[in-house]
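Example S7 (structure tokens).
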């Protein structure tokens, strides 16, 4: 009996609209019974998944990290296996899991049926796959419009980041973990669950998405230009060894600021400080390449 797959593709993603028919053909060739659904509003993806939960064997999401994040709560609730077709701009979750951007190869991985239980991050009731952060990354998110991402692709992240860094101003925050408190003056606090975010930046060099821990770094620079020598190390997650970067690991972390500051989760602004971050171990099953 052919596995019944609910295929959700974000038509607004960089490749979504033109790759839909290719994805259906590829999956059907591999033996899936495909039920394609689309929504103009990604926030409705969860409702679509719940509506189909008793009629399907798995959910396949085509899009970027924002589209996947829009579906994650329903995946947790239904515990359906998740297949990923990386059709977004950054595809950081796919990069963390070793899923290639090639659509035929990503379909083959789903057909291979290798299920891996992965952790999720959680902040103030909102799940995230990759990273939740405040500071520089929020300003980057606010400026990375759909039009900018569609036009410039992955280069949009770098160009926008440089502009935001140049304008950056430090803010005060309190970080609490294991009944200890530290006060910082920082331009960015990032809390990672997976390894990659922001178009290929690494949170920690050894982070994995099933290590049952959160990895926090605080970027405590005084002048914008101090971040420039850090950028190559940030690609590999080795910035945590630099003097003006604070690194903390744990299963639950609290962050407080003088006034509420917005927090982005997987590239979408969803909550604000004060914030409680937790790791949810082995929360969902994702179809991944064989080890």
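Recovered sequence:
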């Amino acid at each position: 009996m052919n596995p019944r797959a609910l295929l959700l593709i974000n038509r607004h993603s960089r490749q979504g609209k033109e790759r839909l028919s290719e994805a259906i053909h590829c999956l059907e060739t591999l033996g899936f019974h495909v039920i394609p659904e689309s929504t103009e509003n990604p926030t409705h993806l969860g409702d679509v998944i719940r509506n189909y939960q008793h009629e399907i064997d798995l959910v396949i999401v085509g899009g970027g990290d924002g589209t996947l994040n829009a579906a994650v709560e329903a995946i947790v609730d239904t515990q359906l296996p998740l297949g990923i077709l990386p059709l977004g701009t950054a595809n950081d979750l796919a990069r963390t899991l070793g899923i290639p951007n090639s659509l035929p190869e990503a379909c083959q991985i789903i057909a291979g049926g290798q299920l891996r239980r992965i952790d999720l991050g959680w902040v103030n009731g909102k799940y995230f796959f990759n990273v939740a952060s405040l500071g520089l990354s929020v300003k980057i998110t606010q400026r990375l419009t759909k039009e900018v991402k569609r036009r410039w692709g992955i280069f949009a992240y770098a160009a926008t980041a440089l502009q935001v860094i140049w304008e950056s101003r430090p803010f005060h925050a309190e970080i609490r973990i294991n009944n200890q408190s530290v006060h910082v003056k920082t331009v960015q606090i990032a809390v990672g669950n997976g390894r990659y975010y922001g178009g290929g930046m690494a949170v920690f060099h050894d982070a994995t998405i099933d290590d049952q821990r959160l990895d926090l770094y605080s970027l405590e620079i005084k002048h914008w230009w101090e971040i420039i020598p850090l950028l190559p190390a940030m690609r590999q997650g080795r910035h945590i060894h630099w003097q003006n970067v604070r690194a903390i690991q744990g299963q639950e972390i609290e962050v407080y600021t003088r006034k509420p500051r917005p927090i982005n989760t997987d590239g979408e602004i969803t909550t604000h400080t004060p914030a409680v971050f937790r790791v949810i171990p082995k929360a969902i099953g994702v179809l991944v390449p064989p080890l």
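Notes on this example. The mean pLDDT is 88.
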